[in-house]
Amino acid sequence: MAKRKNTASAFKWSDQLVLFRYFLNLFGKDSLADLAGKMNSSEYEGFDENQNTYFWGELDLLLMRQGADAKISRDTLREYDERICRYVKKIGEKRGGIKLKYFQYIACLFTEIYLDRYFTDKEAFAADLNAFIEKVKVESFGAIDIEPFTPENMNKLLPLCQKNWRKTRGH
User: Fold this and answer.
1) How many separate domains does the chain show?
2) Using an 8 Å Cβ cutoff, are 21 and 32 in contact?
């Protein structure tokens, strides 16, 4: 009997991180480098005069350029940024302040998006993720085949985050 070649290994490991790719796709990007762009500069660390991050300003410009094609609203992005700013300030209170690097900010942003979508409407979130998975499966000719998301299997990390996230949202 002939051995079957594992076609999924023909794709880079990062191509198989579908959840990460889903979040990048919200901003119309395919890689972290594409999303980060010039945010990889230390001048983007910190807060502007409105107490938003400079990262937010750059991502907001990106969404403005996308216009009607944007998959996340500018107002929603601002809300996420404001929450991240509150977390960073709270964590940095007794440490003399902290500044996030671009990749730390993006990790916080993607986590915030996940938690917001999960607690707001996890069924719709699962449906959006599954539509994206189907697109990835088609693009990879079936080589990347991820198990569908269900509201029940999307909560693996939530016990760690749930209490603090709900507290910051006033739930």
Assistant:
1) 1
2) no
> Does some domain include residue 136?
yes
Taking a C-beta distance cutoff of 8 angstroms, is the pair 55, 61 a contact?
no
User: Does the residue 1 lie in any domain?
Assistant: no
Nearest to 53 by CA among 110, 115, 90, 105: 105
Tokens of 17: 């991180």
User: Are 141 and 9 within 8 A, CB to CB?
Assistant: no
DSSP 47-58: B-TTS-BHHHHH
- Half-sphere exposure of residue 111, counting CA atoms within 13 Å on the CB side? 16
Q: How far is residue 40's CA from residue 151's CA, in Å, rounded to a whole number?
A: 35
Q: Tell me the per-residue pLDDT of 41-97, one tens digit each, with 9 for 90 and over.
A: 999 998 889 989 999 999 999 999 988 788 999 999 999 999 999 999 999 988 888
91 within some domain: yes
Confirm whether 3 is domain-assigned: no
| Angle between helix 74-92 and helix 54-66 axes, rounded to 10 deg | 170
pTM to 2 decimal places: 0.80
What domain range is 52 assigned to?
10-34+42-169
